[in-house]
C-alpha cells in the first residue's frame, strides 16, 4: 500500500453500465461524485430505489483495483477504467482485503469510508458475456468471492484525478470483513 494511486476517474449523469473516463471528478461530502447518477444521501441504484427509496446511500463512490482489469485481460476480457461502472480506478492497494470502515485519503483533501463490496449483477454479462463468472468466483470451501470492487461514502469533499496518492487508514480493531452493500 506504499504506492497506491488513482489510475482513472469516471462518472456518468445517467444510469448506464459503464462510465466515461474524465480528467478529474469532484467528491462531495455525504453525497458522492458531482454529476454522477448515483449522487445522493439516499440510495440511487434503480433496483434498490424500487425496494426502498429511503435507504441510506452506502454506494456513493465505486472503486475498482486496476489489477482486476489485468486479471480479466488474462482471461480474455477487455476492460478499461470506468467500464464496470466504477468512479475511481486504483492501483497498488488491495481494496478487497481492507476491512469495512477503512478510510481512504485520496489526493489533497478527499476522504471516503469503505462500506462494503460491490455485488455485481447480470448486467455485467450484457457488457461482455461470461464476465459475471470472472468477477464472482467460489473458493474450494464454497464461499463466494466478489472481485468487482468496493463501495464507499464520501467523508470529505475534494477533487480526485489520475496520479493522486491513496492512503488507507484502518478502523479500530476488531476489523469487520467486507460484505455486499
CATH superfamily: PK beta-barrel domain-like
Helices, by number, come to: 4
Number of domains: 1
Elements, N to C (H/E): EEEEHEHEEEHHEEEEE
Strand content: 25-35%
InterPro entries: MoCF_Sase_C (IPR005302), MOSC_domain (IPR052716), Pyrv_Knase-like_insert_dom_sf (IPR011037)
Protein name: MOSC domain-containing protein
Pfam families: MOSC (PF03473)
Domain MOSC: 19-169
How would you describe this protein?
By secondary structure, this protein is α+β, with helices and mostly antiparallel strands. The protein has one domain (5-169): PK beta-barrel domain-like (M1 Pyruvate Kinase, Domain 3). Helix content is 14%, strand content 30%. It is built from 4 helices and 13 strands. It has helices spanning 46-51, 66-74, 123-127, 131-135; strands spanning 5-10, 21-22, 25-28, 32-33, 61-65, 88-91, 103-106, 110-117, 136-138, 144-146, 150-156, 158-160, 166-169. It has an 8-stranded mixed sheet with strand order 2-1-6-5-11-8-7-13. Strand 9 (136-138) and strand 10 (144-146) form a beta hairpin. The chain starts with a strand and ends in a 12-residue tail after the last strand. The model has no long low-confidence stretch (mean pLDDT 94). Residues 19-169 form the MOSC domain.
Amino acid at each position: 500500500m506504499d504506492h497506491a494511486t488513482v489510475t482513472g476517474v469516471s462518472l456518468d449523469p445517467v444510469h448506464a453500465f459503464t462510465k466515461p473516463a474524465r480528467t478529474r471528478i469532484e467528491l462531495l461530502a455525504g453525497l458522492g461524485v458531482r454529476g454522477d447518477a448515483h449522487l445522493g444521501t439516499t440510495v440511487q441504484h434503480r433496483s434498490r430505489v424500487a425496494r426502498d427509496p429511503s435507504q441510506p446511500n452506502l454506494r456513493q463512490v465505486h472503486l475498482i483495483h486496476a489489477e482486476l482489469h489485468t486479471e480479466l485481460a488474462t482471461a480474455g476480457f477487455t476492460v478499461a477504467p470506468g467500464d464496470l461502472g466504477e468512479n475511481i480506478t486504483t492501483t497498488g492497494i488491495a481494496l478487497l482485503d481492507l476491512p469495512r470502515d477503512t478510510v481512504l485519503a485520496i489526493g489533497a483533501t478527499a476522504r471516503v469510508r469503505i462500506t462494503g463490496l460491490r455485488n455485481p449483477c447480470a448486467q455485467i454479462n450484457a457488457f461482455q458475456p461470461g464476465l459475471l463468472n470472472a468477477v464472482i468466483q467460489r473458493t474450494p470451501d464454497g464461499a463466494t468471492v466478489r472481485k468487482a470492487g468496493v463501495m464507499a461514502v464520501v467523508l470529505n469533499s475534494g477533487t480526485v484525478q489520475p496520479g493522486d496518492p491513496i492512503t488507507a487508514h484502518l478502523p479500530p480493531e476488531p476489523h469487520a470483513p467486507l460484505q455486499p452493500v
